[in-house]
Amino acid sequence: MAVIVGVAIAFAGSTAWAKVSLAVGLYLLMMAGSFAFTTRRGKFDVWAKLLLELDLKGDEHVLDMGSGRGAILMMVAQLVPRGRAVGLDLWVSSDQSGNSLAAAKRNADLEGVADRVELRTADMTSMPFDDASFDIVLSALAIHNIKDTGGRQKAIDEAVRVLKPGGRLRIADFRSTHEYVGRLRQLGIADSSERSLGWRYWYGGPWAATKLVTASKPRLAQHE
27-216: what fold? Predict the structure, then answer.
């Protein structure tokens, strides 16, 4: 409270240019605070809730598309002690700092889930898995890294292909989520929808808010 009062007093007594500078500084500070909170805690809190909502039995096969260092992959691996958690990535460090296969393996060891985690190096637009291989397909802030619309559509197509009939899809992203929903509906998944994941998953502010795409593959799906 004392800080807020101090800032208000400083603002009131400042020149016009000083007020602008102070406002810009506060704006940037709030952006940095939002980003730091999301990356260090917020996204983990959100995903913990999302994974619990799946009500997993513990024997599911789960795929994480664009798994990176494995934050979400290791969380879901904890919930499938009799199942399998597969992480797929190209391990591009420009997409995520410190992103590497070695880092993901190390994290699996540290979390005590290496026995049920499998890491594969491959492109999400052409995944090396059989049709209907997974009960759950997840992706967190990965598909938007594909630069062209056609490539993103192929990633969605692949996600649907490798899902078992009745399987569930959860995609968190801060871009192109409406596009993902549109493609899913083209593929015959009528229950596809998107919703905001709230302030805990903002990357600097509401203009970079993460949304969740949810869908369930029909038991008798029809594809294009």
Answer: Rossmann fold (3.40.50)
